[in-house]
């Protein structure tokens, strides 16, 4: 069950259908199953991130309180489901704690190749034409209406969504998968599969069009490679350096033959950023939000800071501001502080440092956009973090012969 959940979460996270106006995905149903197999295991999995268990309980208190208050003020079912996603997503870590590290390694290798191969098919054949309702997009939803910069004339978009319905989400998965594959050692067939997986992940990042995850990853990637090479035995370090160099050159050559990939990357991530210094309106959100707060009376301000806005407050935002407006300032500190605590625990384990940097990139993305509200992004943060915890606590490094 745990392996099935992980495969679905990484490969077809949006498989499912709209039920009573809400997306009911196989990923969420399987999460409920893996948690209910043994609730104690799920609680212990959260506690395995040292000191995070206390943070999670405190965050849970504020989230549940906010949900109850929101119900009383008439919040929409969709917004309520987003709050629930924040509460239950860390429990997904239990799935990794019960499977062999070697199996997790194989699942990630297969997932990153399949997801990005499908993304390439979308890029070449068209996003809408290549969509499979109920499998690659939730049945009852329209991929053309998603936030992907869809261009109906070419059946393309600024953000190739693959099976995630959004380029931001597939970008998060690729960063976590690439950093994970740089954290652990493999031999034989899976050594070559890992190299292919890393290359597929990098191509997928070029296509995803998500600046919120791509910009921090570009900064961190050189450090990831350096940390990866330092952890190798001296006899293999020279070989690995050669492989990384040759692999990078091969990737560049392949992209040179498919110039449209580089052109899309340049247009989306360089020119659009230069032409729009507001980052799609994000830089001005604090000013507009502060202006909106001036119209609130004292009880409303106390409610906003303690447990987030009610349905009558016309205040919004992206990323960290959106979390603050939804749950209040204490929950915001607990949430982002808890994520940074997990990153710190992973960084303290030398072999897990490339993955720790990948997790940090995801935290940066969560500060910029609201991907934490949409499965399986927050789940994957804890799923991949748990792989470091298992090795740190004495599990064998997933060496595959």
Helix content: 55-70%
Helix count equals: 18
Unreliable spans are: none
How much is the average pLDDT?
A: 84
Secondary-structure element string: HEEHHHHHHHHHHHHHHHHH
Instruction: Name the strands of the widest sheet in spatial order.
Output: 1-2
How is this structure best described in words?
It is a single chain. By secondary structure, the protein is mainly α. The protein is 67% helix and 2% strand. The protein is built from 18 helices and 2 strands. The protein has a two-stranded antiparallel ribbon. A hairpin with a 2-residue loop joins strand 1 (16-19) and strand 2 (22-25). The longest helix has 25 residues, at 101-125. The radius of gyration is 21 Å and the shape is globular. The chain starts with a helix and ends in a 9-residue tail after the last helix.
Question: Secondary-structure blueprint of this entry?
Answer:
Layout (H helix, E strand, L loop, with lengths): L1 H10 L4 E4 L2 E4 H12 L1 H9 L4 H22 L3 H12 L5 H4 L3 H25 L41 H15 L7 H20 L2 H20 L3 H24 L1 H17 L9 H9 L4 H10 L12 H8 L1 H19 L5 H16 L8 H16 L9
Antiparallel strand pairs: 1-2
Features:
two-stranded antiparallel sheet, mainly alpha, 18 helices, 401 residues
TL;DR of this structure?
This protein is 67% helix and 2% strand. It is mainly α and 401 residues long.
